[in-house]
Amino acid sequence: MIKKITIILLVFCVSCTYAQNIYYFSSSAGNDSNAGNEASPFQTISKLNSLSLAAGDKILFKRGDTFIGQIVVSQSGANGSPIIYDSYGTGDLPVLSASDGPNGNPDPLSTIRIIGKQYLEFHNLKIENGRFDTTGTDDDQSFGIYIQSFKTLPGSGNFEDAVLFNYFRFSNLVVQNIYSVNSSGTAFNNIRTTGIYFLDAFVNDVIIEDCYFTDIERCGIWLRKYVSDAIIRNNKFIDLGGSGTIISGSKRVLYEKNMMRFTGSNSDPRMTGRGSGMWVFGSDDVVAQYNSSQHARGAGDSSGMHVDYGNTNILFQYNYSEDSAGGFCETLGANDNIIWRYNISVNDGTIDRSGKNKLLWVSDYAYVPTKSTNVFIYNNTIYQGKDYKNVIGDSEISLKAASLNFINNIIYLEPAAKLGEKAYLFDVNTPNFSKNIMYGGSIKLDFKNLDATKIIQSPLLLAPGRRHYSGYKLVTGSPALGAALSFTEPSFPLAGLGIFSAITSDATKDIYGNPVNLSGATNIGADNGSGEPSIPTVVTYEAESGIIVGGSEINCSNGSGGKAVNVGSAGQTLTFNTVNVSSTDLYLINVFYANPLKSTLKVTVNGGDTESVILPYSDAYCYQSGVPTSFPIIKTLNAGDNTIMFEQGIIDKMEVVSVNEATLSTEFERFLDKTEAYLEKTIIPSSETLRLIINKEMSSQNVEITIFDINGSLIIRKNLDSKNMSLEANQFGTGMKILVAKVGAQLIVKKFIVY
């Protein structure tokens, strides 16, 4: 009877409502002796760590404030009543940083530490951890959020045979400035520095969404070991030293609608300088779809996305990959059932920064070299032409597998491009090549001859060479229309189940949302539409026809009309006031520029918020006989005349063309969150410049900037033009500083660190 009563109580308590406490924290207006409510908030992370939290509790940090110290999550929530960490108030997200600058106080390994806890949520926070001062160990590591369990793998070798920790939610986080004390002597594979890091986590049910990762030594998200049923979606990974995401030792992961740009970056000397946008290793049952990866760099694995070794049941579909150093479809050894379908690859493969330059790449690389089985590459569209440095493609082919199926793909090369001529390896036990279009340039004859049913005609793409997936639709009369091979597709065993409830085993649509049924008549390539009736109208605006403020018209022998406009300095602008379109819609704005270094272009449309767009480098300046290159920006324009303003670039011309809404959402083309004001960097070396960025609505006013030391002593006060709010950091001294900016009636307070 006692056992029965106990069981009844346990069942009842699954649906218990837990008492909820809400604790408010403000570093600027709080005190640890306060009551901890909104009117009387606590102040420090030390106080937070001393609280005995319970299921259902909320911890709220005041927006605009900075909190220094490591948060040690020492309590779990409960099913239906998680412990929630969030923000309150208005203004910038609150900053949580374990590091307080180079002051001799040891900087913790992570800003948020979670060991063996569960039912946790984190929302609307900015997380940093630029470590400077040693703890005596792990100087080559740093983390924003660190999750570990200290469990050991069961004898079965299956982590899911252990009792797992459940329910983790992360949303609307900005994770940046994550750097170790010093990793200069550490091998690349031993550098773990990551924004959100799971190590021996033994966790289930994870969602990471709508987060922004930038300025990190290596990785944005790393499921390093033992995570199941994870969804990673709608995130932006911009300018990271390594990969956007690594999925290793995990099961059942859905990775969708993420944007990855400039992974493997070296924009900060502390960055590792190598990394694919995303990759999977030693994992089972992963789907990656509707993702965009551009400008991955590095000497090792630096593809748009890739499949490392030891995986089973991996499905990559509806993704856009462009200008990656590694190439397309990188698949290493000891894998089984790897599916690449309905993806678009544009100018992947380069030797830039020692890139692998293997456009088509399947290998046997594994701990023990082992050829992969059941690799399927079908209905993809692959384009090769000129890259951003105006270098024509000359990529390698390297294919080594037990069984490889290459079916219904389009390979389109510009006339001077080459594929497989530079280097060619083919070692496949059971090849199956059918109904591929191989057109243009110079394609290795041995490779072409693998397909007895190949088509050597132009596929008639809508706008080949466009740096956007909209350019790779088929037009009326294409030989790809209705010409695909009908075949039985490989199975994705978990389709329709759990987190894959919306995933189908067979392809049912293409990257543009058109229906697909490969058991019947379909198209070759990634577009299964009926054919576009005509090429859309492209309207060109020469830079010299715009309104130039502060900059100048310059000669550019290789530019359109032999002219360009230099508005490269802060505050200089080029404005087009009469950009006329027929209907309110999304438009592709191709900006042709001649900046030989990776740079930031500011764009303002119709007086709205100014967005900063990172541009890849072109081959040279105009005066060095540089040839302008183009970069696509997606904007909504209104019917009638529109105003488009550019700052900080050398602009040749602008093209405007309508982009029909497609399944691969153009929202993932956008870069920065729209905030009223932000510091370009919050941790900067003394040799650099401190810059405050404000939005367009505030930019017509003068700004008074005051810098204080952390002890409150005045360092400098200046009145500046809102278009040029830059100060040399070497005049402040090192350590933590406080910036106060008066913009009209608004007061902006920011903390930053100089080292």
From TrEMBL:
Q: Which UniProt keywords apply?
A: Signal
Q: Which InterPro entries does the UniProt entry name for this protein?
A: Galactose-bd-like_sf (IPR008979), PbH1 (IPR006626), Pectin_lyas_fold (IPR012334), Pectin_lyase_fold/virulence (IPR011050)
- Indicate the secretion signal residues: 1-19
Name of the protein in question: Right-handed parallel beta-helix repeat-containing protein
- According to its UniProt entry, this protein's organism is Gaetbulibacter aquiaggeris
